[in-house]
Design a protein that fits this description.
By secondary structure, the chain is an alpha/beta fold. 51% of the residues lie in helices and 15% in strands. The chain has one domain (4-194): Rossmann fold (3-Layer(aba) Sandwich). The chain has a six-stranded parallel beta sheet with strand order 3-2-1-4-5-6, sandwiched between helices. The protein is globular. The two termini are 13 Å apart.
């Protein structure tokens, strides 16, 4: 049975590069983003390049109801999940509404928690699986230009929220794909090569 990689919040950079790397390993691909036309183009390009089945769906990571429904529908078939979504409002707080800040925090904190809790319960039944979270650099080096992303990365980079969720799933893994600067994709994917060699999917 073919394995399935699910990418959430996939863009043309790290999200697409990670999906393509798993496609090269023979995983079928399911990509999501707010803009279905854009993510469909990415899925088609990966399918053409690697020959795997690649599907695209529209999914807004700030819509918790939609995130929960997506998780319930697709978690049982997933082997690897990559949460790559990020909410980034204006860096100037006085120019940012409370609504936009709440939206960002849903994307950067609440949605990954919903995803991890939902997929963990299904991966437990398989006894293995991997959850990848983009981030980490801004947790160590917070930026005023990316305030809510820095807060979110500080949250997901701490092991304690995830240990209790994943302890029941052995050998399930959760990993951060570090991202910083212009070389984000190359740095992350070079690290992903060793991850693919050493992880149990």
């Amino acid at each position: 049975m073919r394995k399935l990689f699910i990418g959430i919040g996939v863009g043309p950079g790290l999200g697409a590069s990670t999906a393509e790397r798993f496609a090269q390993e023979g995983f079928d691909i399911l990509l999501t983003a707010r803009n279905k036309n854009r993510v469909l183009e990415l899925a088609d390009a990966i399918a053409e390049k690697t020959g795997v089945k690649a599907t695209a769906l529209d999914l807004d990571a700030s819509n918790l109801k939609a995130i929960a429904e997506f998780t319930e529908k697709h978690a049982s078939s997933a082997d690897v999940v990559h949460f790559n979504a990020a909410g980034m409002s204006s860096p100037v707080l006085r120019d940012t509404s409370v609504e936009f800040l709440e939206n960002d925090l849903r994307v950067n904190i609440t949605s990954p928690l919903v995803i991890i809790k939902g997929f963990t319960s299904h991966l437990a039944k398989k006894g293995k699986g991997t959850i990848l979270l983009t981030g980490g650099a801004l947790a160590m080096y917070p930026s005023a230009d990316y305030l809510t992303v820095s807060i979110g990365e500080a949250f997901i980079s701490q092991p304690s929220p995830w240990l209790n969720l994943s302890a029941q799933v052995l050998p399930m893994r959760s990993r951060l794909l570090m991202s910083s600067g212009i070389s984000t994709g190359n740095l992350a994917i070079s690290g992903l090569g060793s991850l693919l060699q050493n992880e149990i999917f």
